[in-house]
Amino acid sequence: MISRVLRRTLALVFLLAALPLVAQVRGAQQQAPTREQQTQQDHARELAEFVKANYTKSEYRIPVRDGVRLFTAVYVPKDASPANAYPIMFDRSPYSVRPYGADTYPVRLGPSEHFARSKYIFVYQDVRGAWMSEGQFMDMRPEDAAEKGGKAVDEATDTYDSIDWLIKKIPFNNGKVGMWGISYPGFYTSTGIINAHPALKAASPQAPIADWFIGDDFHHNGALWLPHIFGFISSFGLARPEPTTKRPQRDFDIPADGYTFYKAMEPLSLANDNFLHHKVAFWDEVTQHPNYDAFWQARNLLPHLKNIKPAVLTVGGWFDAEDLYGALNTYKTIAKNGPGERVRLVMGPWCHGCWSVPTYDSLGDIHFNSMVSDFYQRNIEFPFFEYYLKGKGANDLPNAYVFETGTNQWRKYDAWPPTNTAQKTLYLGAGGTLSFNAPAEGFDEYVSDPAKPVPFFEHTTSGMARPYMDGDNREQGWRTDVLVYQTEPLTEDITLAGPLQPSLQVSTTGTDSDFVVKLIDVYPVDVPNADPNPMQIEMGGYQQMVRGEPMRGRFRNSYEKPEAFKPGQQAKIEFVMPDVNHTFRRGHRIMVQVQSTWFPLVDINPQIFVPSIYQAKPSDFQKATQRVYRGANGSKLNVWVVNPAQNKSAADER
């Protein structure tokens, strides 16, 4: 889930990027901005002045079918007239439409500055029950109003009713509406295209939430994303009894050492006793529903994404630690259930929402050698809305416009996953080998100790540090409770495009366990370091994670009906990891790591089967010896390899 104020943060990105460096010690003198920072600061100031000079702001409370009024801020170009009408760009959010007040303006409008300068009518709305809107807020409100009928409401009906009001009441609109939003607002964009208002012509759900149990935000294959949900919901989830411009804040701090903090909070039954005190209703709901029951199934948005009428541009990041699953599966579901030529996918090398930062060109230690967000904003996002809402430009975007990590170039495909791939299998072999050839039978084993879980990130962090998604895994691989398999140095480039499908044959001396699979790109030892290199990162031998995902073993056969392992008995664990589009360069190695803890990113499995891990007792947490079996029918990773002769980059076509 996106941070509580990311929408506002992204709106301030120009100013934030432009602020001069400030010494962190009290009394230190402010440093003079660099020339680049000064240029960015001047640009941000000019854009803020442009917005205020060219738009008139009004605030409304839009009534919807059950009488609830939704607080809405509207910005209309000052030169709008009957002869110069503009389309509407609509963003619905639980994170506030601030700044409040008809005379206060944000520093930018729209998904990027190109929209404000081209001019649209911009509409921002607090969703039902959030901030200044009336009604009761519900996390991922189930989409069931169409089934109930009458005056039943959900996010789709609130969107429909709001658009209907806007088209009729806001002067000088051209009758066309576009929607966009990132993360939770991306979810609201997705709900808006369900039984959409006829005026809604184009929508861009960006990192949209799709399913909070299977792959987005708070759970991955049933395993709890602990620092993410706790850090977010402990503040966001506090009750808001009436409309307000200020939200309550948690009454405790999460220290910088998240590993120690969350370790002390295990078992998770201590969270309410020590911190939340049942003040956060959604945390209680999560812990009361440890399996994929009706509560979670009702919040799975994917079954509702059918017969979609507006054109859709789904956007996601390969290194999005929060809603990568939602972006990929929203696109795939809409494309499967409707006309494929009106739904498109964009995937870049981004962290969560980072396509809104025009200067973004790296994540952690990994550089992408270009301003990838600026390219996307200018050449993909802005032309998409210009075409469908203003009739400008051409409808020439490919079905899939995806960035290829490893080679750092954009690719155009007619579909995603691309059709020019062949399935191949990487087998885990003896002596830590990894090969496309089946190995002899055998097994490797390690002891998993809940008291000493494997850290998910090499640096101390209080939360879910975004750079872990492409970070270095050398230190994890040195541990005895992590199995490491790698190929020989590659003699030619290998590009993987599409999902990854681990198939593990395992056994455990316990009755429950997690199994984490990581796909890693191992750099040659002679790779030069970055210049400058202030953090002294040694890139020779760097082990860049390409994708990592846990599988909670109790759900290996069913997310609805968990099953215990039988100690010492082999069991198959198969699951799907989110897609990749990555080239392992010649001279690099492909590595797979397997482990049973990944802390505090994933909560600790006690390794003794209990009805609910949320109610586990300290005595339930026990060491277990895990075996991973090898052989033709043993543990492997199924991948999709691109035919290099059929791979064409965006640069090739320009």
Secondary-structure topology with pairs:
Blueprint lengths: L5 H6 L1 H6 L16 H20 E9 L5 E9 L8 E8 L19 H6 L2 E6 L18 H4 L6 H15 L3 E10 L1 H9 L7 E7 L12 E2 L2 E2 L1 H11 L21 H8 L4 H7 L4 H8 L5 H4 L13 E7 L6 H14 L5 E6 L13 E2 L2 E2 L4 H19 L9 E5 L4 E5 L7 E8 L5 E2 L6 E7 L25 H4 L4 E5 L7 E15 L5 E9 L20 E10 L18 E4 L2 E8 L4 E7 L28 E7 L5 E7 L7 H4 L1
Parallel strand pairs: 3-4, 3-5, 5-6, 6-9, 9-10, 10-13
Antiparallel strand pairs: 1-2, 2-4, 7-8, 11-12, 13-14, 15-16, 15-26, 17-25, 18-24, 19-22, 19-23, 19-25, 19-26, 20-21, 20-24
Task: Give keywords.
single chain, 16 helices, Rossmann fold, 2 domains, disordered N terminus, Jelly Rolls, alpha+beta
Q: What does this molecule look like?
A:
The protein folds into 2 domains: 6-210 and 301-397, Rossmann fold, CATH 3.40.50; 421-646, Jelly Rolls, CATH 2.60.120. The chain has 16 helices and 26 strands. The protein has 654 residues and is an alpha+beta fold. The chain has a 10-stranded mixed beta sheet with strand order 1-2-4-3-5-6-9-10-13-14, sandwiched between helices. Strands 15, 16, 17, 19, 22, 23, 25 and 26 form an 8-stranded antiparallel beta sheet that branches. A 4-stranded antiparallel beta sheet has the order 18-24-20-21. The chain is globular, with a radius of gyration of 25 Å. A hairpin with a 4-residue loop joins strand 13 (400-404) and strand 14.
